[in-house]
Amino acid sequence: xxxxxxxxxxxxxxxxxxxxxxxxxxxxxxxxxxxxxxxxxxxxxxxxxxxxxxxxxxxxxxxxxxxxxxxxxxxxxxxxxxxxxxxxxxxxxxxxxxxxxxxxxxxxxxxxxxxxxxxxxxxxxxxxxxxxxxxxxxxxxxxxxxxxxxxxxxxxxxxxxxxxxxxxxxxxxxxxxxxxxxxxxx
Amino acid sequence: xxxxxxxxxxxxxxxxxxxxxxxxxxxxxxxxxxxxxxxxxxxxxxxxxxxxxxxxxxxxxxxxxxxxxxxxxxxxxxxxxxxxxxxxxxxxxxxxxxxxxxxxxxxxxxxxxxxxxxxxxxxxxxxxxxxxxxxxxxxxxxxxxxxxxxxxxxxxxxxxxxxxxxxxxxxxxxxxxxxxxxxxxxxxxxxxxxxxxxxxxxxxxxxxxxxxxxxxxxxxxxxxxxxxxxxxxxxxxxxxxxxxxxxxxxxxxxxxxxxxxxxxxxxxxxxxxxxxxxxxxxxxxxxxxxxxxxxxxxxxxxxxxxxxxxxxxxxxxxxxxxxxxxxxxxxxxxxxxxxxxxxxxxxxxxxxxxxxxxxxxxxxxxxxxxxxxxxxxxxxxxxxxxxxxxxxxxxxxxxxxxxxxxxxxxxxxxxxxxxxxxxxxxxxxxxxxxxxxxxxxxxxxxxxxxxxxxxxxxxxxxxxxxxxxxxxxxxxxxxxxxxxxxxxxxxxxxxxxxxxxxxxxxxxxxxxxxxxxxxxxxxxxxxxxxxxxxxxxxxxxxxxxxxxxxxxxxxxxxxxxxxxxxxxxxxxxxxxxxxxxxxxxxxxxxxxxxxxxxxxxxxxxxxxxxxxxxxxxxxxxxxxxxxxxxxxxxxx
Lengths: 186, 636
Known about the structure:
A: mainly alpha; Helix Hairpins; Monooxygenase; 2 domains; 70% helix; B: alpha+beta; Substrate Binding Domain Of DNAk, Chain A, domain 1; 4 domains; six-stranded mixed β-sheet; 15 helices; 39% helix; 24% strand; globular
């Protein structure tokens, strides 16, 4: 039942956490494995150790944090999978080719821009955020299928979805900043 | 002072040896030191039974500095030489002082760097040196109570402290001769103190309103692992500001504010007394409905007045509102709602103000916990962590996973900031960025590192300029310089750089914006030793001797285990020679020489340590099941 990973920097993040390679990740298992690894290699375990041990612990702990951060977030996970499969994680400079999607994004941005002057800015921003989350969740579902059976065609499609997710992510962050501002300058 | 500890991973070098470790809450107003004895964390009192040490230092011309209550009592009489709240100045520059309202009654002097310097009868001093005095006073207290020098300390810092403030705190410890096991965030320390007491699993919020800083942290506890989900705050908001609001009200009521300037033309002594009176009134109003105040006016008259609680609350409401806004942001960053919080913990003396409690209860929809003395809880948590890190509790699997509170970025074209490591990233963390050269043959590159959430450089906090030298000369644009930004478990930044096409590592020179360079620290250390009083010298000597003896013991134990196996004859001879040199130096009454010799020994034996390390890591990790590795570590 247990197929343990070894703390070896040449392993990929999925192997590190002993998870099957794919877009669908058992969040609970990921968190458990993350805590188990850090419990062993974190610098706090080496506070009175020799300098070399400290350096190794620092590098290992950093690696585990980066791996966890990547696998926890659907967008980062998707880019990582693209990188593993094709050697190219996809860059921010590529834009989506889906005209309808881009139109929708422009409308969302306009809504956000108008939100500040609307009678209830908080509610307006919240509506946009809900919409963004719904769209992201739907795209995540598509990605799960595409990465389950990776082929040049499915990876191409996955890349396009990642571009869309990037748009949504940027929009979500801007919306959250606006929400913070609605809350009083913070 | 790094101790050479040749150890098996996860195991202390000499398991039978209990290390004397302590936790220090280096507070704005008061500081405390705590240790774990018989499994229980307790703060240590002074000879008069007082646990709190006022973070006040009075510098005198011909006598050693006075630290604590004695200094505080004299503040009104000698305001320019009595430095309080150095924590508000540590890691800051002159411009910040102006922003802090210019209410700090010290003589600031210009230096050639941006580091703050205060002119006192005892010399021109930086906030780092002031804090070092407080640390030394605490260390003495612990050493007397424990009967020996401290092997290591955990010092707490506000979660919201930036890199410069953290580094300065560590520098203060270096000056005080204290090895730092970890810089620990204050809210995390408090959560530690509460979490262990109540064996809680869940999501907690820690609301920490200290003398000068406000922190809010959202943490998740899961079977001994504390993960900070988000942290926020305001490193210029604290109890001092509530006091100032009261002081301003007094000045206004007494009719001295506007015409004579913001301080009403009061002299420094009168101002200090006013601030103290304001603080007393605030404390009084926590239980009484009104407090009486008086003020000595410049014209010789005395003003009397009464501050009602309702008036006080109106005065401080905007300050508390600021703290709540920070709480809401932290909840958002943590992606939890106020309703998801299982418990709220209050930390810091100012949380005794009833309005603070009321507003916090309102926001989180539950009564906050304050069962552990809010003045002591941080030090207690730090002591627990110190005890753990020193290796006194093998088999205890408590783990703290903290985060960086402010985004880390670099200056780019046009005075903009590109954020590399976002706030609330779990540490340790690293990010790499590629740079290239602009001119043919360019051999150096400067990177300006900042912290903050804003897009303009001017709105962020400058940390340091890193100069990368020794880049192999190439055609402009051909070099691929990979700069790595690494944040360690203390939240401190290290920068390294390597030119990828040639593989050459660049030499990195750090020019801190508000900090002291390594050379400055070394020279301060030397200065403090040459001017130190005899008893201080004796104590330093004792400390260095103990450290030296520990190193010798560890090395001898290691050699006995595998010296013949891992070292060739000539290598062994070199190590033995270095050992003998240190042994001989230990009997000399020269602390500095001993320290130098320990360093030299570490350098000489570095290769041996590496060999041992490689061997134990290889056998412990390679080809072993992770579970087996877990088993070994928990069984040691």
